[in-house]
Every structure is written in C-alpha cells, then in structure tokens.
Amino acid sequence: MSLTSSSPAIKNGLPLSRHLKAIWQRMSWPMFSAWLIAFIFVMPVLALVFSALQPDEAIFSHLFDTVLFDYIYNTFILVVLVSLFSLAFGVPSAWLMAMCDFKFKRFFSWALILPLAMPAYVVAYIYTDLFDYAGPIQISLRDWFGWQSPNDYWFFDIRSLGGAAVVLALVLFPYVYLLMRSAFANISKEQLQASRILGDSAWRSFLRIQLPQSRGLMIAALALVGMETLADFATVHYFAVNTLTTAVYDTWLGYYSLPAAAKISVFMLVFVFVLLGMEKYQRRKQAVYSRSDTFSDNKPIALTGKRAWLAIGYCSLLFIAGFLLPFAILIEYAFSYFDEAWNDSFITYSWHTLLMALGVAVICVIISCYVNLTARAQSHCQSHQIPGHLLSLGYALPGTVLAIAVLIPMSFIEHQINDYFALWFDWQPGLFLSGTVTVIIFAYCVRFIAICIGATREGLAKISPNLDAASLSMGVGPKRTAMKIHLPLLTKVMLTSGLLVFIEAMKELPAALLLRPFGFETLATYVYQYVSDEMLEQASLAAIVIVLVGLIPLIFVNRNMESRKA
Amino acid sequence: MSRVLEVDDIHVNYGQQSVLSGVSFDVEQGEILCLLGPSGCGKTTILKSIAGLLPISSGSIDIKQNRVSNGAVMVPPEKRNLGMLFQDYALFPHLTVADNITYGLAKADKATKLSRLKELLDLVHLAGNEHKYPHQLSGGQQQRVALARALAYRPDILLLDEPFSNIDHKVKYELIEQVRDIIKKANVAAIFVSHSKEEAFAFADKVAVVNQGLIEQVDQPHVLYQLPQTQFVGHFMGKLNCFAVAHLSAALKAAIFVSEQEEQRIDFIGFRPEHIVIAESCANLAADNYVTAKVEQKRFSGTHSLLLVSLADWDELIFMLAPFDQNVAVGDEINIRFVKQKAIQF
After folding, report:
1. Which residues form the domain of B294?
2. Which of A279, B24, B119, B281 is deepest in the core (most CB within 10 A)?
3. Are residues B316 and B205 part of one domain?
C-alpha cells in the first residue's frame, strides 16, 4: 500500500523524506525485522557490485579482449543443454509417477530422488574412468573389434561440454522430477477428463491442460537447475571446460584481483537475473488456489505389458545412470582401497559437515517461514513480498562468486571491530568471522535459503485465504493463526525444502574451497582434492558418506510424503 | 429484538473503481438476512467489509453498538466476534472435527470446551464423528462441522458466503432447512450471500437485493416478489412482463387497466406470468377487458404450462401460465386477461 500511495504523491511534488516517513510509520515490527534479515542477506551482493566498480589494473580488459566471450558462450550452451536434458529426464518420469501405476512404481518414486545425493564431480570422475580411452569400455571395444588406435573408430569424448551437460543433468533432474510430480498430482482428474471429453487425445490433454498449469513450477525447477549449473565449478573444472565460474576462480586465485573477479561475476549475475526474472514473472501470473489439494483422490492409469516395461525401463535407466552405477563403483573402490580410505580425518570431517549442513538447513527453514508468514499477514501492504525476493537473490550467487562476496563485508566488519578493540582494550578478537565456520554457514544460508523461501511461498499460496479468514473470525490473531494453521500445513514443505538445503550444503564445494578456515575441511573439499589428483579411490569412503547422509533424509522425507498421501 | 448490526452508508473503492456506493441496512438478533444479487454486484464485498477483511472508504459499521469500521478505523477480524461459513467450508485439514469445532474456544477451559463441543455436535447431528478428519466426512457433514465451528464461540453475527452453491440440487433444500433450523436454534443473527433467489427465499427472513454496489430494496421475500420497487428487483425475483406505459396502444391500455391518472403517475406496469390468465368465457367480459393473443411457444413444467404469447400491437413476447391440462397448442389464438389487482407499478 505504501508504494502505490506514495507514487501519485511524488508526482505532486511532496518531498521524499515525508514519503520515507510515511512508509516508516506504516512499517510494523515483523515487517521491519523481515527487511532487516533481507538486508543482511543482500549485503554480499551489494558488496560485490561495489567491488566490481573498483579499478582492476587492466586484468579484466585483458580477459575481455581474449577469452571472456568463449567463456560466456560455453556457459550459455551448458545451461541450455543441462536444462534440456533435465526436462527430458524429469518431466516424463514425473508424469509417470503422478499419473500412472506400474510395477516397482513405489520403488522408483523415491529411487529417482537419489541422484540428488550424488556430487556431480564424483559422477564425472567415475564416468571418465569408464568411458575414457584407457577406460574398461573402450578397452573392451578395442579387444572385440581389433581396433589399434583412436583413429580406427569414433567414440564420444566425455571430457567435453556435452559430457559435462549430461553429467550435471543426471544429478540435477530430480529438481524437475520432484516439482513436476507434485504439479501434475495437484491437477484434478476432472480437468483431464473434461479435456478428453472435449476431444483431446491423452497427449494433447497433456499439452493443453497439464503442461500450461504446471509451467510455473517447471520454470521454477529449470531456474533451480540453471542456477545450479552456473554455480557448478568442480565438474567443468575437472573436464577442463572453461565457463564463467572457472574464470572467476582462476582470476581470483591466479591474479588475486578481487575487482576483476567481481566484474566477471557481475556478468554472470546478469545471466542469472534474466533466469530469475522469468521465474518470478511466471509465478506471479499463477496465483491459483487449489482447493482440492488435500482432499483430491486421483486414480492412476494402470500400465501393463509393453507400456509398463517402457516406463520401468525409462525409470531404471535414470536411476542406474544417475545413482546406482556410480554408487556401485564407489563401493567397489572402497572395498579395494579400504585401508587407505579409512582414517581419522575422514571421521572428523564427516561429523563437521553433517552438523554444519543441518545448521544451515534449520536456519534457512526458520527464516523462510518467518519471512513468508510475515508477508502473508501483511499482504495488504504492497511491498510485503520484497524481503522474500531479496532473500532469494543469494541463489543467484555461484559458489565462487559467493565466497568472494561474503568475504568482503565480513572482513570489513572484522577490521572495524578489531580496530575498536585495539583502541580501547589491549586485545583483538582476530578473524572471528572469516576465520571460522561462521563464514561458511552464513555463505551457505545466503546461497540456499532461496529453496526454502520459494517452497514455503508456494506452499502458502496453496492454503486458501479462507482458512486465514476463518481462523481470524474465530478470534485467533495472525500470530497464533500462523502457529496453529500455517505451520502445521507447511510441515511437508518445510521438510522437503529443508532437506534440499541440507543436501546442497553438504555437497557444496566451490564456496567451501575458498572459505574453509585453516585446518577445516568439509567432506566435499576433501573428496574434491582427491578427485583432482585422480585418486578418488583413496577418498571413496568420504564420497560414499556424502552420498549416504544425503540419502537418509531423502528416504525419511519420502516416507513422510507417502504416508500423508494415504 | 435488539439490533446486532448496523451498516450505515458504506462506500468501498478498489483504486479508482467504486465497488460499493452507499450501502445501508441493519440486522436484528436471530434474524437471517440475505444479500442477493448477480455476481460482481458487490455482495461479497459487503460481507468482507463486515468481517473486517476489507477496509471501507467511508460510512460506518457497528456491531452491538460498537463501531468496528469507518473510513479511518478497521477493527481486525479476530476482535469482532463473528462467525464465518465459507463456500469451500475452509475446514482445517490437519485438525479433527473436535479440534476444528473448538478452535475458536482457545481461551475456555477444558471442561467448558468439552461440554460446548457436545452441545454443538448434538445441534448439527454429528455426535460420534469428533475424532474424524474433514476428508473422512461427506460434503454435507463438512458443512455442518463448519457451521458448528462458526457457532461454537457464540458469535454476534454469522456470515455465510454462498454456502449452498456447491451443493447438489437434490439435497440442497433439505440442507438449507437443516442449517436454517440450527441457526434459529442458536438464535444468532446471520447474513447470507447468494446469487440464487430460490436459496434466498428458502433460507432468509429478509432479503436485500444488491445491484451495482447499491441495495435496491430490503424486505421479506414475498414482498419483494409481489411489490418490487424497482424493475431490477422485479425481474430478479422472477419472470415479469413489463410494459412501458408510454408505448401502450389504446386497446392494451384498456385491457391492462391503465387509467388516465395512472398514466400520468407511472412509467411502467408489470405482471407476473401467473397473473395473466386465459379468459375462459368472454361472454361475461366487456370487450376491452381481454385481448387476443397467439401462442408462440409452450413449455410444460409439471404443475403448469408456461406459454409465450404474442400480442397484435406489442413487440415483446408475453409470459403467462396455463393449467397443465389446458387444451392449447402452439399457433392457437386465445383470449387473455390481466389480473388488475396484482399489477406491479413502477
């Protein structure tokens, strides 16, 4: 309300200070705190932009003249390819799960989430091992056909842009799968029947009814996938594909030029904000309250014979390629190299990583609920959604960029405080932020809270405003309504989104590579070190743990979702 | 009877658009008022203004002599002691029937809650279902839970937003009777929003006809039907044959008894279909007491047949009723008579 009412007044020439005052007077305490949280989370972005405006001793213009456009081109193609592959993997499987019934469906309904637990660089390493010139596949082929050299036959090169795209899509498609599955399941069967009666074939009713209605969630899922892809550092670095992310990393570690790294990052952000803008626009168009959500009872289409085998085959292929095969190979490594892989540092790092990821997930869920519920309670105020949108910006920051962005304000604050202590006391607290785990936790929250913010916002949008009106009319105020109605109905969403954050935080690598305090390793940094040294076998146990801790909550949440459905 | 709600000259604007432009009415204890009108007329806006879900631009709303809304102040919904019944029932899906019903009794102690719960379950005939969840109940049962929930904390007014529009026609009137009975037993004032006059007639004591952000008339249903004050109300309440006096031929004027004084005073005269009848024997009637009409369409409707007839010097078809066994066919010429006492004048 404050924004619209202020705009005509500005035209009438009222001084700005009076507008700010008016906005301030209308600001409630919860709204103010939401804005404050948003500001803290946005600070790194602001610092980054500020830093990008600093002069950089011609490093950037050198990059601009030579390789930057190749990097941009590679990045663009990579995002497009990963999105396409993720759709091809995720949409059919989501549709099968939401609409059909076939043998092993219950198994696949959770098995297809499992690839989320696989770090892309581990998959990349394993498939390189398999498909390389010296790998078992090509060796067998050469044995069978009697080929002598690479000139005798064609074999795809996995260490390429296309290879990177497939590997990334194999572990990212569950985002598309999860969101599209719930999108399809929420569309009432009556609508599909209506479209069939109006003369559509099954395929056309998919195109005309299901796809348009789930477009919002599909774009949201693709935005997630796209941003994950932009953020990926390890896979492309391992495959030696140069993208903007590797450019930021190399610029920072190679030239130690923060402004140049910040400038490339800003390039990247433009990319990301276009994606983000598309997603927001789509969601705004779709404020639909689904009434049948909790009571709906859609009977699945039973698949038999060839069609059932096709469905099973498709799901198996995704499951094997995205999870089972790489995991089996990891286990094989672990058996063969157990003595080298089992050591104290491995155990310590596991525990640290688990605690840290859990902390990040809990913080993200709590803040998201607080901010979104405040927005719902204050929905008469036109700017109520802005803090949530600001908080989501962090997802736009690829890990490498984020690390640099977070370091800027943190070290500034540390400097100020250390100066203060030096002046008044004879003691300095030192690098109490950037030299500790705090910096990683904060960075991860900035980066991953968007998952929770988006999910809780979607979840809340599905709760009919009549429930709020009913509760309020019964004398229960907004705060207690949130506690008694919204939060219980959001449990599923909180678990799902918290889980996604947990896994992401556990697997996140590039930010940790730059931010980890001295002597602190996350499992991811530990594993990646061995990957880049071509010795994953030695860290195979750690890699298995990354996968397993990601698996436990996956299974737990999936069970929870299933039992609620029943 | 004491006055529970007073709505005085309220205006509501959405941006530049005026949605309500001066609505006033009041409701007494134990009275059921229906806000009746076509969709988009502003009836739901009136309800939301009373509930405190929407600010009003000017005017005032008083509940039990307490000012709850005016142009500047809006008491929040939770402080108004209202009950609301929604079209989609808005039951809390994660709470049992018992928890839903006692939701508004948060401040009461456990014993009070239990005894009130029992009273309400008896009132809405759902005893034994208290541990079920909403999705385990039928639509009608869900609605009765919603009703019990809205009545549990003894609200001053019950607001019902299109509560019957999703309900199957066969059981609708039975349900309306049940709900009406429950509300009357609870002796609570109720405001009910509907676009269906049949529902309004069956459910309400008084009906306010809303049109384009204004109340056209408030009265008992039969008065609205028999003595509508505006053409809109006349047409909305049921089929109405309306004649513009200025355009009537001399013969028609005579047949529908428009005297010269009336011609000066009124612009329109209307007849319900049942007040235009077939003149059985014209021998007893003066020639100018009936007119000849041609049957254009005939629709059988059980107790009666609805005839659409054309008159020689009138452009529009006239609706009239004939006994179902009347021997008329499409194309017949018949003599018709207007029941003068029932004429509606505007």
Report:
1. 240-345
2. A279
3. no
Share of chain A above pLDDT 90, in %: 14
State yes or no: pLDDT of B287 exceeds 80.
no
Residues B279 and B230 in one domain: no
* A473/B77 touch (CB, cutoff 8 Å), yes or no: yes
* Rounded alpha-carbon distances, angstroms, from residue B328 to A518, B312, B320: 102, 19, 13
The domain that contains A39 carries what CATH number? Answer: 1.10.3720
Query: How many domains does chain B divide into?
Result: 2
**Range with the largest mean pLDDT of A91-105, A294-308, A439-453:** A439-453
Q: How far apart are CA A389 and CA B341, in angstroms?
A: 68
3-state secondary structure A371-420: HHHHHHHCCCCHHHHHHHHHHHHHHHCCHHHHHHHHHHHHHHHHHHHHHH
Domain boundary among the residues A520, A536, A560 is at A520
DSSP state of B155: -
Residue A152 CB contacts under 8 Å (≥ 6 apart), including other chains? none
- B81 Cα to chain A: minimum distance (Å): 6
Closest residue in B to A467 (Cα) is B90
Q: Does residue A148 sit in helix, strand or coil?
A: coil
Q: Please tell me whether residues A118 and A135 are part of one structural domain.
A: yes
Give me the CATH number covering residue B62. 3.40.50.300
Model pLDDT for residues A287-338, shown as the tens digit of each residue: 443 434 433 455 677 788 888 898 999 999 999 999 999 999 999 988 888 8
Q: Kindly give, in sequence order, each residue whose CB lies less than 8 Å from that of residue B178, ignoring residues fewer than 6 positions away.
A: B125, B144
Task: Look at chain A and report how many structural domains it folds into.
Answer: 2
Q: Inter-chain contact A473–B94, Cβ cutoff 8 Å?
A: no
pLDDT in tens, B262-281: 777 888 888 999 888 888 76
Alpha-carbon span A160 to A138, nearest angstrom = 17
Q: Is the pLDDT of residue B302 over 60?
A: yes
Calculate what percentage of chain A has a pLDDT beyond 70: 88
Q: What is the CATH number of the domain that holds A236?
A: 1.10.3720.10
Q: Sorting pLDDT into bands at 50, 70 and 90, what band is A27?
A: low
| Cβ proximity of B252 and B291 under 8 Å | yes
Residue B63 confidence (pLDDT): 92
Q: Which domain range does residue A37 map to? A: 28-57+359-520
Q: Do A295 and B93 touch (CB under 8 A)?
A: yes
Strand partners, B336: B278, B291
**Cβ-count burial of B226 within 10 angstroms (0-12 exposed, 13-18 middle, 19+ buried)?**
middle
Q: Are residues A411 and A509 in the same domain?
A: yes
| Contact present, B284 and B332 (Cβ < 8 Å) | no
Q: Least CB-CB distance to B106: which of A294, A472, A476?
A: A476
Chosen domain end from B236, B254, B285: B236
Nearest to A318 by CA among A81, A459, A114: A114
pLDDT, tens digit (0-9, with 9 covering 90-100), for A145-182: 888 777 777 777 888 888 899 999 999 999 889 888 88
Q: Looking at the structure, do residues A39 and A88 belong to the same domain, yes or no?
A: no
Count of all residues that appear for chain A in the document? 566
Confidence of residue A84 (pLDDT cuts 50, 70, 90): very high
Q: Which two tokens stand for residue B49?
A: 């203004």
Closest Cα in chain A, distance from residue B296 (Å): 35
Chain A positions touching B52 (Cβ under 8 A) are: 472
Side-chain-facing half-sphere of A316: CA atoms under 13 Å? 9
| Chain A touched by B266 (CB under 8 Å) | no
